[in-house]
Amino acid sequence: MLLRIREPAEMVTFSFDGRHVTAARGDTLAAALLAAGVDTFRESVVGGEPRAPYCLMGVCFECLVTIDGIQNRQSCLIEVREGMVVNSQLGARLVTGCADR
Amino acid sequence: MPLLDKSDIAVVGGGLVGAALAWGLARAGLKTMVLDGADLDPRASRANFALVWVQGKGLHAPHYALWSKASAERWAAFAAALAEDTGIDVALSQRGAFSFALSLGELDGLAAELEQIAIETGGAAAPYEILTAQETRRHLPLVGPDVVGAAYSPADGHVNSLRLFRALHAAMRHRGVDYRSGHAVERIEPQGNGFRLVGAYGAIAARRILLAAGTDNQRLAAMVGLHAPLKRSKGQILVTEKCRPFFEYTSATIRQTDEGGVMIGDSEETHTSAIATKQEISAVLANRAMRVFPCLAELNVVRSWAGFRVKTQDGLPIYEQSASHPGAFIVVCHSGVTLAANHALVVAPQIAAGTLSTDLAPFHSRRFHASENS
Amino acid sequence: MSMRRITDAGTLAPHYDLVVVGAGPAGLSAATEAAAAGACVLVADENLEPGGQIYRAVTRNTQGRQDFLGKDYWKGRIITEAFCASSLDYAAAATVWSLDAAAAGEDHATLGLTLGGAARMISARAVILATGAMERPMPAIGWTLPGVMSAGAAQIALKSASGIPGGRIVLAGCGPLLYLLADQLLRAGANISALLDTADKNQRMAALRHLPNFLLSPYVAKGLSLLFSVRRQVRVIPGVTELAITGARRAEGVRFRSGKRQETIAADCVLLHQGIIPGINLASASGCIIEWNDTQRAFQPYTDSHGRTSLAGILSAGDGADIGGAEHAAVSGRIAALAALADIGLLPPSQIATRLEELEKQRQLYRRGRAFLDTLYRPARQFLAPPEPDTMVCRCEEVSAGTLRQVIALGVPGPNQLKTFLRCGMGPCQGRMCASTITEIMANERGVSPAEIGTYRLRAPVKPLRLAELGALPQTPAAVVAVTGRPPEHRSIEEEGKKQ
Fold first, then answer.
1. Rounded to an integer, what distance in angstroms lies between the CA atom of residue B350 and that of residue C97?
2. Is A92's CB within 8 Å of B142's CB?
């Protein structure tokens, strides 16, 4: 979890797992989520363990989330945008058109 | 030089073929040694598509069609024996498989081949059906509109071939096989009562030898009066991130592993010796996979890889004991996964007993002499 | 004239004189130098803004508002400003996922790149890889728990979002960056409970012979003042071993040994760091020869003194080639740019000789003292090759140190076979988070140097890309034949009709 020590100049609003979250314009989505107090981003694919960003620079792939319906996206490399719909990435991705079995 | 590690047999090559045979030899009671190469040597065992596949195999070679079919039928017993030795489940699944056609030309080609094989084997080949687009979609609602039909055979399946590879190595350890990596064999010297295998590691003596060194067999065979003419064949594969199950069957070009990743294959290039993957081939593989299963479009591709197939001039295996140097055996084959069951359960016991069965005579390399002379 | 921002793949030129991969100090400097010489240049970078990790968000931050970042950070302004004033193409948020050196008889390399959701293949007469460094993974029990991040991640949060970890922070590991981060966090008002220094005391003797050189280096004054400043304000515990992060669903504390004492400290955030290593994935996948640097204890692409790799037309500069810090990286970027332009005939060698000589001198200055730091802060063996069997080594495929050791004992020839046996390195991070540990564990088990063990062989795509992007790329007839066994077909109307 991150505390902001400078007030953001400009805010944007998005949703994470159904709840409204505000962020600073220019944040990466990963930073925005951490600053919003999100501590678990996903469940791991093999063991279902809770995971969260480790490197924040595109290396570790621990910050994967679903953004606007597209799964397994690296939130640390994507700029947060107004109205984004973000969800936790729970385990392996689903294939489009295929029911979760 | 270190001398005479007294092995009954030294297997040259620790890939799927060498390991399956070595395990089989050890099960048959032979004191077995495996001499394997380095980490980055060409290894088809690490670049295969993991199919236990019969469909379409053995065109104009009915003995090969039936040999493949027999191995597929033997696979469950093989997997069970491996599990017993190692506790490793190699995820064998034999629910049948599709060959997808993206044009009527492709579908006609598939149908003609399968029919020909059925005729040549007198109906003993694996059963199959040719499905229309509609019938294909009835089985597999997720296939795309570009699929004009498919061939289906219930005899085909797949395994987790990487786990199979590990299981074979664990099973070799379990049976006391002396496995040595970093032992590239440079030279084979026939001796009075056996062979000396010489390399940078020194020299190792064995009463008998079995060449299972993949593409390197061509070079080694000549040293003991054997003949293994290979042709170049490079294959390339894509693999995606893991996803939830979407395809419970398998196919020759798209399969979902038990772990969730989707493998997309494959290509064949005959004029390159470079092992690197090519982006233009990846593009065609990706495009065709999406046309077969449009639902895969959003999946992330995480890797591509390429490997050299161990392909003889006619694509069929060679099983042979040297006439000039008895005790020197060779196994050359492309389908190291499919044929692993035969290798461990049929071929290895024959080699252990000292003679290959006459059933394997059609796989003798004399067939190449005939065609080379004609 | 100024930099042109490109946001979609279609706007990229099909061909450039020079493509620079990475927009940190090395990449920005290389591009600026090349553009000044009149070359047609593209800079492709994964991040949203120029600056790399070291100067992250430097174009947005201000010295007034982000005073806690320290004066070295603002040097990045000079570099980014020069870059933004250069005449070149700049693609931010771009992923370069493949690089193929020029084929025989051709004079251009080919890059696969994704930008704005679409992939594109472009060509370049020369490519400079300025892919930077990553932190050396520091596997320990519990390091996969939420609440555990790398120290670099905390620094990125500080630079890019003015964010500090909330609650009680414990820093653990070794190396200058750990102390620099502690200092920055303290200035920013963070609550640091302890700094657990895992530096290996045995390295002090080994480092001594490099001390005279270090004392002449620009790092001395800064380093010492950092050490003193942090020690004044934070409990620093030296000689830490047996580090484990405790907690069920997230980090709750850190357990460790210091001398004879075992202790657990409560923590809401644990920041790990044990130095940085070159990010070699793209270089490696393109086929550049990768070599072991024993001083830095890492693999890096082979480069000559001007940054040329083993492949014609591909150069490497900055920390991705050889760890040397930001200022060293900037100079090495300029050197590589001059070498690249000379190689492709855009600059006569005679014209650049003097400038190269001057830059080389600067580079030597920035290199000074590195050997001392590298040796002094070489991580202890137990942090390179974690002894606890339950320590997760491959985070993606969830392969533990114990499982790895069991399979290594089967006699596997090397890391690539180990990868196929256990899937370590096969997940989405493509081995970035486990490669160094795999090599170290194997070297340790076999009692040989990591140089003998080697590392993963990598293949494109070095970053995941969607199947749809790959499938939309142009198809060559030869590739179609290779896949289908038949020449490309144009579907007839008759077939289209039958499909319905």
1. 49
2. no
Asked whether the predicted pLDDT for residue C491 surpasses 70, the reply is no
CA atoms within 13 A on the CB side of B59: 12
Closest CA to C195 of C178, C210, C180: C178
Which portions of chain B are predicted below pLDDT 70?
1-5, 370-374
As beta bridge partners, residue B306 has: B236
> Which residue ranges form the domains of chain C, and what is each CATH number?
4-134+277-347 (3.50.50.60), 137-274 (3.50.50.60), 385-453 (1.10.10.1100)
ipTM of the complex: 0.96
The residue of chain C with its CA nearest to that of B268 is C482
Say yes or no to pLDDT of C498 above 90: no
Spell out which residues of chain C touch residue A26, defining contact as CB-CB under 8 Å.
48, 57, 60, 160
Q: Do the Cβ atoms of B244 and A100 come within 8 Å?
A: yes
CA angle C482, C488, C493 (to 5 degrees): 150
Kindly state the tokens that stand for B7.
């092995």
Interface size, chain A vs chain C, as Cβ–Cβ contacts under 8 Å: 132
Partner A contacted by C249 (CB < 8 A): yes
Residue numbers in A near B244 (CB within 8 A): 91-95, 98, 100-101
Pick the CATH number of A13-90 from 3.20.20.380, 3.40.50.2300, 3.50.50.60, 3.10.20.440: 3.10.20.440
C411 touches chain B (CB under 8 A): yes
Judged against a pLDDT cut of 70, whether residue C499 lies above it is answered with no
Tally Cβ neighbours within 10 Å of residue C489: 14
Domains of chain B, CATH where assigned: 7-48+162-229+314-373 (3.50.50.60), 97-154 (no CATH), 234-308 (3.30.9.10)
What is the predicted pLDDT for the residue at C225? 87
C145 and A50: CB-CB below 8 Å? Answer: yes
